[in-house]
Description:
Layout lengths: L7 H26 L9 E6 L3 E4 L5 H20 L14 H21 L6 H4 L3 H14 L1 H4 L23 H10 L1 E5 L3 H4 L2 H14 L6 H7 L7 H4 L25 H10 L1 E5 L8 H14 L2 H4 L1
Antiparallel strand pairs: 1-2, 3-4
Amino acid sequence: MSDFINNFWSVYVAAITLIGILGCLLLLIVVARKKVVSSGDNTTGHVWDGDLRELNNPMPKWWMGLFVITVVFGLAYLAAYPGLGAFNGKLDWSQTGAYEKEMAKAKADLEPLYAKFTSMPTEEMAKDPQAMAVGERLFMNNCAQCHGSDARGSKSFPNLADGDWLHGGTPDKIKETITNGRIGIMPPMAAAVGTAEDVRNVANYVLSLSGSPHDAVKASLGKSKFVACAACHGMDGKGNQAMGAPNLTDDVWLHGWGEQAIMNIVNNGKHNEMPAQKEKLTEAQIAVLASYVWSLSNTQTQK
């Protein structure tokens, strides 16, 4: 592991790069000076296909000059830009730095556009076509990869258009989620529930809470064991938004539906994470994006 944190690989890459460039230049010099003894007809004596002869003409000077120019350009480029191991180049250019400059310029250019939205409440912004168009673009660029272009999510990625919220669906809560991200952890609960059969019974009891198909006998046996889950989900199974504990009574199954899916989560636990966007988006962008997300499940309010 130490090979990846010491200076060896930096020196190795720099040495291989310089040796390769200088080797090409040396090869050019050697070839240019080498004289091939030719016959009286200025050929090398090599014959192909019966009558195809190789002439002994020197390489054109323009070709030699162009080759030298490429070598000089390569050395100048490596002196100015990264390419020699850990050496950053005299211009101190980096992909990260260039990206950050471009993003800063883009944000500055867009600031006047967002300025008109900063003082608007979420409900009013959700009625503004321009704000919603901007919000949709922000969503497509930053959220659709997980939640889908229609915001209806998929397995393990919440549906943002159905009104079911793990941490709350108020404008402030949505802004908080986008800004700081969320980490959802359910520890393995099999040991707390009891035996493997107890886990199966609890799974059927959870299914019964939402009126889903289940084994009524197993569900009745699992009710008393559900107390191990009640600390987060509540004795009534309606969850706790302060903890991000899902409501088990609404027939919304984020990580899969059915006895086996619930047993897997009880046995193995679950870890979900939404990354924070505060380093990528400005406060004004987050406000517009939050309004767009809020509007997806509050379409009636906008009318």
